[in-house]
Amino acid sequence: MPSSLTELKPSLLWKHFEQILTIPHCSGHEQKLADYIIAQARRLNLFSIKDKTGNVLVRKNASAGHENAEPVILQGHLDMVCEKNSDIVHDFSKDRIVPEIREGWVYAKGTTLGSDNGIGVASGLAAMEDAQLVHGPLEFLFTIDEERGLTGARRIEPGFLKGKKLINLDSEEEGTFTIGCAGGADSEINFAFKRKRAKLKQAYRLKIFGLRGGHSGLDINQGRGNAIKLLARVLWQAKGLFAFELIRVEGGNKRNAIPREAWADFVFDPAKFKSLAAFFQTALDKIRVEYRSVEKDFQYGLAPVDRKSDEPLTSACQDALINFLFTCPHGVLSMHPEMAGLVETSTNLAIVHCAKSRAQIICSSRSSVASALEATRNLLKAVVQLSGGKIKQPEGYPGWAPDLQSALLKTLKDVYVRVFGKETRIVAVHAGLECGIIGERFPGMDMISFGPTIEHPHSPEERVQIASVESYWRFLTAALQSLS
Ligand SMILES: [Zn+2]
């Protein structure tokens, strides 16, 4: 049983990964790692350059006899998500990550490991150094700030890359090729409020909580409840029957998360409270049954709340807000016609926040097809127009439409079968990847993404499977040879 990374194979890759662990590189603080790569390139007499943004490019000439092959780009991101357990003392700006080997996996002690995408970066460094590899001209692209907003990829200058074939090393399941991703765009919606004098004094809060939430792209097809939508649904049902006066609706806190909690404050007659409470209980218990297999911790509460000086909305504003939240689309809108199980288009009602004079609502929409994303944004616009709100739609980021006819895909599928005697799984993801951006900035780029098996990235449970790194490297080197 190996006890240190230096005993693991492939040794060059693990040697560089071990070095990477000693260099702080949280998102936004990648420059020391960028400098390490440039120092390695200089040591190996390879061309290297850092762009204004901080992305690094290294070029390596073809091995002898393969000078005429088409160049291939190997790409990974420099930054890592820095998370730790609360009982661990660790300063990500200067402390090294401490690896731990257990039962065939590498972990970090109480922190994220940064195998996402440290293994990708280390394999680029290993390919730079390894003199035994057979390959055509190689370009190594290391981008910054992938985790927070794909910033590095967004700012690559035209002309930075020569190659037309790109292998992204940031996938997390060995034996799987990723060949597509979703583009995304947000909509920011506003409703102007008028408020009135409350006739009644007592305010109540109806709260929905305990939902699972999750990633607004990757988890959108899991059948989970959206707390804002469920709240809007019962408020809409109640508004024809009970004269409650809405003060505010609040829910969600992240653009890319399905909201787990939402609540509404309203003024209501205490003498009729019992029947309103019974109504909500019946309606919400039906919802609990609908979601029973997915939302095991679904909960709600209805209780008096301190009203302070907040006045309720006029009935027109109250209607507009509830109608909008109830009709606003949320969830999967279409599935990909060729790739089983892949969500093609979806939208997430992410956040609602009510200030004194207006409500702000954020929706985040995704599609691997640009025109379908545009149609989804238009759909939101139309619903907002019907309800009398205003909408702003800032520019989004592009998707990467799966190309099942890709020449690169065909070559690598064949290589995989030759090396391992079995087929790969071909997938696309319903989330943003750097390839979407790179493909837009470099039209005609043929791209594929693969990597070793990494579990629980972005959390202190992150781990990378040692055997999968060996298989991944074996495949990567065979692929480079085939492409030469
Ligand atoms: Zn990553």
Textual characterization of the structure:
The chain has 484 residues and is α+β, with helices and mostly antiparallel strands. It is built from 12 helices and 21 strands. The chain has a 6-stranded mixed β-sheet with strand order 1-2-6-3-7-19, with helices on both faces. Strands 14-15-16-9-17 form a 5-stranded antiparallel β-sheet, with helices on one face. It has a 4-stranded antiparallel β-sheet with strand order 4-5-21-20. A hairpin with a 7-residue loop joins strand 20 (454-455) and strand 21. The structure holds zinc ion. Residues 77, 116-117, 146, 170 line the site of zinc ion (ZN).
Shape: elongated
Number of helices, counting only DSSP H or I runs of 4 residues or more: 12
Please estimate the helix content: 25-40%
- Could you tell me the number of beta strands? 21
How much strand content do the residues show? 15-25%
Main beta sheet strand tally, sense and closure: 6 strands, mixed
Q: Provide mean pLDDT, rounded.
A: 96
What is the alpha-carbon Rg in Å?
Answer: 26 Å
Bound molecules: zinc ion
Low-confidence stretches: none
How far from one another are the termini?
36 Å
Query: In order across it, which strands form the biggest sheet?
Result: 1-2-6-3-7-19
Quickly give the structural class: alpha+beta
Question: Keywords, please?
Answer:
484 residues, alpha+beta, 6-stranded mixed β-sheet, 5-stranded antiparallel β-sheet, 12 helices, elongated, binds zinc ion
